[in-house]
Design brief:
The complex is a heterodimer of chains A (479) and B (509). Chain A is of the alpha/beta class and 479 residues long. Chain A has three domains: 1-38, no CATH class; 48-249, Metalloenzyme, LuxS/M16 peptidase-like (Cytochrome Bc1 Complex, Chain A, domain 1), CATH 3.30.830.10; 273-471, Metalloenzyme, LuxS/M16 peptidase-like (Cytochrome Bc1 Complex, Chain A, domain 1), CATH 3.30.830. Helices cover 40% and strands 18% of the residues of chain A. Chain A has helices spanning 7-11, 13-21, 89-99, 107-116, 141-153, 159-174, 180-193, 205-209, 213-223, 239-249, 301-311, 318-326, 358-374, 379-391, 400-412, 419-429, 432-442; strands spanning 48-51, 57-62, 68-75, 120-125, 130-137, 229-235, 273-278, 284-292, 294-295, 333-340, 344-354, 449-454, 469-471. In chain A, the strands form two sheets. In chain A, strands 9-10-11-8-12-7-13 form a seven-stranded mixed β-sheet, sandwiched between helices. A six-stranded mixed β-sheet of chain A has the order 1-2-6-3-5-4, sandwiched between helices. In chain A, helix 3 packs across helix 9 (213-223), helix 11 packs across helix 14 (379-391) and helix 11 (301-311) crosses helix 16. The N and C termini of chain A lie far apart (73 Å). Chain B folds into three domains: 40-96 and 155-313, Metalloenzyme, LuxS/M16 peptidase-like (Cytochrome Bc1 Complex, Chain A, domain 1, 2-Layer Sandwich); 101-152; 322-504, 2-Layer Sandwich (Cytochrome Bc1 Complex, Chain A, domain 1). A seven-stranded mixed β-sheet of chain B has the order 1-5-6-4-7-3-2, with helices on both faces. Chain B is an alpha+beta fold. In chain B, helix 5 packs antiparallel against helix 6 and helix 16 packs across helix 20. In chain B, a hairpin with a 5-residue loop joins strand 2 and strand 3 (51-56). Chain B is globular. Classes of the chains: A alpha/beta (479), B alpha+beta (509). At the A-B interface, helix 4, helix 6, helix 12, strand 11 and helix 14 of A face helix 7, helix 8, helix 9, helix 13 and helix 17 of B.
């Protein structure tokens, strides 16, 4: 017998138990009347935090369920650090560090060695963070760690692998307009941040062509040093032993004076624009609309988390219910106020709808944002958003890797390590008037930039009914 | 909800998870023995034939549920393609008690909607002879009937109940072989899942059927019609299978989705959604005995019926290579396929070994040849068992030509690697690497409740025993260099092949 069934069930517990033993089934309870037992405790393990003598920060968590060890690193570097003439340099550096091997091991030797033991070591450089990762069976820790450290400290950047990496990037440029959805989201980013912004710019044949081996070597030298880096490691090991092994693996790598540059500023001017990218070979329009978003350390963030759930994320959001379920206008519909750690995110809503309902869908999307700003959400909506957030909170702790990586991420961006726990407390207190206040402050339905990618001659109405149309050119510049 | 899984599903098969006793022997002290994992899986079958697999894992107070319905687009017939997938969408619309204010009133409203749709469909079927004025009237009548029926509705109650309870990843997917319903919940909400999941298959009400078909049509436009590779894959399968239903698109043909009716969907449900056609896996912080009693209480309500027959159509051998071209403004791409047996055939292990040696990782033969040495492709991969593995399907190769290179160059280079397997034996190192990697994959897979639930149901249904998730490795260990040479020679012939390419042309619409 489980605890906490309905009151009626409890009052006849004795009878139920005997029926039970006799083998009869107990009654089905309508789901609304179910009483749930208390959730078993969430055991949040203590993550060991250590700074090595070379300045490298470690976040360490044991997990002995399986004979595996995982590691992930963050290096303070990103494509925001490359010059506009050499867009693509950061990404290429991140790729060739791994594929090109080191001064003592060729890339091919590393591939063979890792695949022979079913392990992986990878590196990459994204927008505002470099990454490295390792996954090995416990017994292969020595091999994996040695390769990882060697790649981070001594990459060789052979010309041949640089050329291969460039070929891959040029191929990606040639294909960048083949996926309508990716092209729409990329171009929408340019509308918001500006096409030259480090947060939105694309690499071109010319920027790839101008990158030299020297550029990769100096980019690596500038950013890869131990006190500019954090490591999260979790799995089947003993903590003191692991710390010692990492210390040894990076021996001889000297700490330097830390150079931390501020993230590039976003200068945004609110405005309404209507933009078209003409695509003759499609029968469905990709719609993106919105404006600049916010930062995660804004005190309004917590109300915006619940606002997002009510407006646009998930099956129970207004956009999903109205645009998809009620009107059948789209399969994919979304809306989100994004708040990044260190630069403003984007507020965006959108969907994919057949050409013939393009303007209808834009109006339906706009109406939902207007409604959010017009009046308070209902009690039911707020409670559904809050309950679902709080009840699902346990999933933040269901894997060790998630726990230790989250801490490292907070540390990397200079956030308090208990940010998530504090967020939970704040979200418990958000009111309907808080939501209306933050919507009115942060969402501007009359100042949205609209982008439609589609076959305009098939639209239900010309886009110009929404305002003067700016036709965007997405031709890929030849080298 | 509503992922039509195809390439995704096969990726997962391609890197399928295997295990053997040898893994247990290499484990260091302190790590949990993997053979224990196998011992911890429990199974029971209800009187109505519904089977449950339960794995207790108390690491965190969460649980993953995976309902595998042994029905996919392969079970459809001409005229109702897309039905398995449409039904999957409808399974989120509630029941006689969930999603309605007054079922008795609503059911009459829904019948009016059906009548209005049938009248409209009949007029539309006149084609050019249809009366335009009448079409407008009938369309209006349909919308009015829908509006009336919707007044009895509690919209999205089913999803809301799960989401309020803290669910993550509530979703479903349909493939050629299967329809899967998944959700993860905090572990104190087990009974909620029991109540809602049994109810959705006990008393489903296909409300908002015609609106949801509009959603599915948008899904088709998104996945297939406006995605060059989606278009090519649809053409490719149609050419590869002229008799077997693996040739039909899971998302369905547009006109079939448009014309299908609620009564056709109900008939499909009644035939395929019977308890003996379901397998459920529950993995996480649960207790077997509690699961068993709740399952009897809630799922015991479903009445038993015979398991539907398997597809009897057999794809006849090809009499020569088949080719298909999609002309499109996008960049070139190539897919090559060879007809191969299903997952339960004795040659499957050797074919899996082939796909690993040819197509997995930076040391694979395709990557080395096409990407690194010849520099004609940016990626190249190989999979066994496409679009499904329950019936004989295809071994497929995908290659993305590098800028300035052609699909023909890629095709030739892939063929050269196949020829090499026919003439030269693979090295012991290549074979060993395949076996080691397979073992490690299973270890990694064990870390995730949802991954395990998915694997257990798949092996139980498609291979007849969930233990094959673990036993497969024994078969892999028996694969020899001769086996690989033999299957390469037997299946990888020009006559048995299908090739599909995207050729870059400017749009002429």
């Amino acid at each position: 017998m489980r605890e906490g069934r309905s009151i009626l069930a409890r009052s006849v517990m004795g009878l139920m138990v005997s029926l039970w033993i006799a083998g009869s089934a107990m009654a089905q309870t309508p789901y609304q009347d179910l009483q749930y037992p208390k959730l078993n405790d969430i055991r949040v393990p203590e993550v060991e935090q250590v700074t090595l003598s070379n300045g490298m920060k470690l976040f360490v968590l044991e997990d002995h369920e399986l004979p595996l060890i995982h590691l992930s690193a963050r290096i303070r570097v990103g494509s925001i650090d490359e010059s506009p003439e050499k867009v693509g340099l950061a990404s290429l550096t991140g790729t060739v560090m791994r594929t090109g091997g080191t001064h003592s091991r060729t890339g091919e030797e590393i591939d063979e060695e890792l695949e022979r033991i079913a392990a992986s070591v990878e590196t990459g450089i994204g927008l505002n963070s470099g990454s490295a990762s390792m996954s090995v069976l416990t017994k292969d820790l020595g091999t994996g760690l040695a390769i990882l450290a060697d790649i981070l400290m001594n990459p060789a950047f052979p010309e041949e692998m640089i050329q291969l990496g460039k070929l891959r990037q040029r191929s990606a440029i040639s294909r960048r307009n083949d996926s309508v959805n990716r092209l729409a989201s990329r171009e929408f980013g340019k509308l918001i941040y500006g096409s030259d912004s480090p947060y939105a710019r694309s690499s071109e044949y010319a920027t790839i062509d101008s990158i030299t081996r020297e550029d990769l070597i100096s980019f690596h030298q500038r950013f890869f040093y131990p006190n500019n880096m954090m490591l999260a490691v979790w799995g089947d090991f003993q903590t003191p032993d692991m710390i010692q092994k990492i210390e040894e693996a990076f021996q001889g790598w000297e700490k330097r004076e830390l150079q931390v540059s501020l993230p590039p500023k976003v200068n945004y001017e609110f405005r309404k624009t209507v933009n078209l990218i003409q695509k003759d070979d499609v029968n469905q329009t990709n719609i993106y609309m919105g404006h600049i978003g916010g930062l995660r350390n804004d005190p309004d963030y917590f109300a915006l988390v619940l606002m997002n759930r009510i407006l646009g994320s998930g099956f129970t959001s207004r956009l999903f219910k109205e645009v998809r379920s009620r009107q059948g206008l789209a399969y994919s519909v979304f809306g989100y106020y994004s708040a990044n750690f260190n630069h403003e995110g984007i507020f965006y809503i959108g969907c994919q709808t057949k050409s013939e309902t393009t303007v209808q869908a834009i109006r339906a999307l706009t109406a939902e944002v207007e409604k959010m700003a017009a009046s308070e959400v209902s009690d039911d909506e707020l409670e559904l958003a809050r309950e679902s957030y709080l009840n699902a909170f346990v999933f933040n702790f269901d894997s060790k890797g998630e726990i230790v990586n989250r801490l490292m991420t907070y540390a990397y961006f200079g956030y308090p390590l208990d940010f998530l726990e504090k967020a939970k407390e704040k979200i418990e207190k958000v009111t309907k008037s808080d939501i209306l206040r933050v919507v009115r402050k942060h969402l501007h339905p009359d100042q949205m930039q609209i982008l439609a990618v589609g076959r305009s001659q098939d639209f239900d109405e010309p886009l110009s009914v929404l305002g003067p149309v700016n036709q965007m050119d997405i031709t890929i510049p030849e080298p | 909800m509503g992922w039509v899984m195809r390439i995704k599903a096969i990726r997962w098969l391609g890197t399928a998870f295997w295990m053997s006793i040898t893994v247990a022997l290499i484990l260091p002290v302190g790590a949990q023995s993997l053979t224990d994992f196998e011992k911890r899986v429990h199974e029971f079958t209800l009187d109505n034939g519904l089977k449950f697999l339960v794995l207790e894992r108390h690491e965190a107070p969460v649980v993953s549920f995976h309902t595998y319905a042994d029905v996919g687009s392969v079970d459809e017939v001409k005229g109702i393609t897309g039905m398995a997938h449409v039904f999957e969408h409808m399974a989120f619309k509630g029941s006689k008690t969930v999603g309605t204010l007054d079922y008795e009133g609503e059911v009459q409203g829904l019948e009016r909607v059906d009548e209005a749709f049938l009248a409209l469909k009949k007029e539309r079927s006149q084609g050019n002879g249809a009366d335009p004025q009448r079409l407008v009237e009938l369309q209006q009548r349909l919308e009015e009937a829908q509006e009336k029926a919707s007044q009895f509705m509690v919209p999205d109650e089913f999803e809301e109940a799960f989401i309020r309870a803290g669910s993550v990843g509530l979703n479903a997917s349909t493939s050629s072989d299967a329809t899967r319903y998944v959700v993860n919940l905090p572990s104190n909400k087990v009974e909620l899942w029991m109540a809602l999941e049994s109810d959705r298959f006990l008393n489903p009400v296909l409300r908002e059927f015609y609106k949801e078909k509009d959603v599915v049509k948008e899904e088709r436009r998104m996945r297939t019609e406006n995605r060059p590779r989606g278009r090519l894959m649809e053409e490719f399968l149609a050419v590869a299978f002229k008799a077997h239903p693996y040739g039909e698109p899971t998302i369905g043909h547009m006109s079939d989705v448009e014309t299908m009716t609620r009564s056709e969907a109900r008939a499909f449900f009644q035939k395929y959604y019977v308890p003996s056609n379901f397998t459920v896996a529950i993995v996480g912080d649960v207790h077997l005995e509690e699961i068993r009693s709740l399952a009897e209480t809630y799922f015991g309500r479903l009445s038993g019926a015979p398991k539907p027959d398997l597809v009897e159509t057999v794809e006849p051998p090809q009499s020569g290579q088949r080719r298909v071209v999609v002309e499109d403004p996008s960049q070139p791409w190539v897919v090559m396929g060879y007809h191969t047996p299903d997952i339960n055939h004795a040659d499957n292990a050797a074919l899996e070994a082939m796909s690993d040696i040819l197509g997995t990782g930076r040391t694979s033969r395709l990557y080395k040849s096409l990407v690194k040495e010849k520099k004609i492709a940016v990626n190249a991969s190989a999979f066994q068992g496409f679009p499904g593995s329950k019936y004989p399907g295809l071994f497929v190769f995908f290659a993305t030509p590098a800028r300035g290179h052609t699909t023909q160059e890629c095709e030739e280079a892939v063929s050269a690697e196949i020829e090499r397997l026919k003439t030269e034996r693979v090295s012991p190192q290549d074979l060993e690497k395949f076996k080691t990697r397979s073992r490690a994959s299973v270890v990694r897979a064990l870390a995730s409740n949802r991954g395990l639930a998915r694997q257990l149901t798949f092996y139980e249904v498609v291979t007849g025993d969930w233990r094959n998730l673990f036993k497969q490795l024994d078969e892999f260990d028996r694969v020899t260099d001769q086996d690989i040479q033999r299957v390469a020679r037997e299946y990888f012939t020009s006559k048995n092949s299908v090739v599909g390419v995207i050729e870059t042309r400017q749009s002429d619409r």
